[in-house]
Give the backbone structure.
Amino acid sequence: MLEIKSLHATIDGKEILRGLDLSIAAGEVHAIMGPNGSGKSTLAYVMTGREGYQVTDGEILFKGRDILAMTPEERAGEGLFLAFQYPVEIPGVPNTTFLKEALNAVRQYRGEPPLDAMQSLRLVRQKMKELGVTEELLKRAVNVGFSGGEKKRNEVLQMAVLDPALAVLDETDSGLDIDALKTVADGVNALRGPERSALVITHYQRLLDYIVPDKVHVLAAGRIVRSGGKELAQELEQSGYAAFAGAA
Amino acid sequence: MPPLPARLRIMDAPAPALSFVDQYGASRDDLPGSALPWLSALRETAIADFAADGLPTPRAEAWKYTSLRPLEKLAFEPVVNETISIDKLPTLLPHGQGGHRLVFVNGTFRADLSLLGDFPDGVEVNSLADLLTHDPETLEAHLGRFGVGEGQPMLALNTALMRDGLVLHIGAGVMVPMPIEVIYIGATPDTPRAFHPRNLIVLEPGSRATVIEHHAGLGTGGYLANSVSEVLVEAGAALHHYKVQADDIDAFHIATSHVRLEKDAVYDSFTLSTGARLSRQEISVRMVGAGAECHLNGAYMLRGAQHCDITTAIEHEAPNTSSREVFKGVIDDTARAVFQGRIVVHPKAQKSDGHQLSRALLLSDRAEIDAKPELEIYADDVKCSHGATAGDLDHAALFYLRSRGIPEATARHLLIEAFLTDTIHKIAAEGLCPA
């Protein structure tokens, strides 16, 4: 599904990722844990093609295809999805319009016929029901006036609607109460399947109680310094990241 | 300085002014109402003022960012008695809903294209040319009451050369249920035309009406539309005045409005500007009655080398008057927008409030906005504010949309639409469909 080889990336000339290797097979859920500043969000943005991040070396293969030359929208079309740590507020764009535009753009990329307003709304409503997201979120502008929990629920809703092959969740647990955390986890778990994968980026082990990963990696100073099973998350919770500070 | 002899003053003016002045000299006796002494006096004063000032240039403070010098390169012909055929009317009213529509082609009223539905009693709708010929007495009280001699050369030029326009008179207490659409079409059959529409709108106490102006071209070349509107809203009356300026891309659109609001009168205006090579919308509002209220809103979308100037002056002259002003625009390529907004609160205008906002979205490095807000406050118990912002599209929002699969062009379009949305809402709420 995902193959990252010796990835080096910089922001404003400063090297953040320094030879990162990561391999996620179809159907697997991996977690990346690490201290602040280790490069977790940078990895998420480099994968999704945000401007301002320069890849200086290495490659990212997604479903066997090099995605580094693709635009962000092409990567989304290929089935890559990022749940943002800080979802962006977009005044003036209704959430329903946004969801419909995104859904049809991705469908078009995949060679599927577009859905009309009624069909897309039906699909969105069905996903909302499954996720326990309130109808109210549809009426408002994208993320405007949403609470922290509502914003994260909206991310999971978008994920469910767009049906990605690989979902990257960037600190999705930050600022969430336990109910919102469960909604988010349920949403991710509902997407699990033999053809789908997820990469959960988190500082804390808490989310991994609900989204149980197949593998856990520790990111420090721009590279993976240790990998293990789900028990590694518990170990980190006990010992902290101090032991890895020198590893890089 | 003693006044110069008339001929010398004319010679002092730049060449194109001379041509307009010559046009006046040649057509003086053919202009509608030429037999009326009061009107002839008005025109003579106006042409002398215009000849003295010439076409506006940035030397004048009110024209600091806009020069009409490009007009010098063009020889505009006056419009005299020609009937241009119009295949398709650029109407904004939804089909099949009836309503009232007045059509002017190159400034001349066209009864054959117009549709005057049933008006309530007390509503008089006429063309200026018609009234000047058949019933000029009704005009003398209001026509030309504003502007002449106040350093407004384009208004003076209009006064000198005006031939036709809308004259709307709404009697006391009359509510006009359907909007009155006024379509101004610019056409250039061979050489560029210049025309000077003159509108007069009077709402008597307690009346209410909606007027929609739609300016469009036939796509046949440049023209100069230099219009003036005089608006009087008497006590407790309300005028909703919407305007869509979609003139031809080679056209010059100059529009000057003078609005006078009496006690508790309301003037609500919205202007959408997308057309013309150079446009200027100048709106002056005097709130002379306590409790008067005005809303001046607008949006503009500019590209290529378009230039759009919005200049407003709001005078709070009486207590408890309020004004709200929001202009938003999207500027691309090398286009340039100008927003000059002046609010004056006079000493007597206690408990008044005036709020003004200019927001521009710059889509290219070479797009430009010049914003000049001015507040002059001579009363102590007032609330006033102004703000001006300019920026490009929100990059974080753009990436967010693209990361969901939305192509960049669509994402930009969504964000531009969102930026304008609350102002456009205004016009959509009227059930209109701007092109």
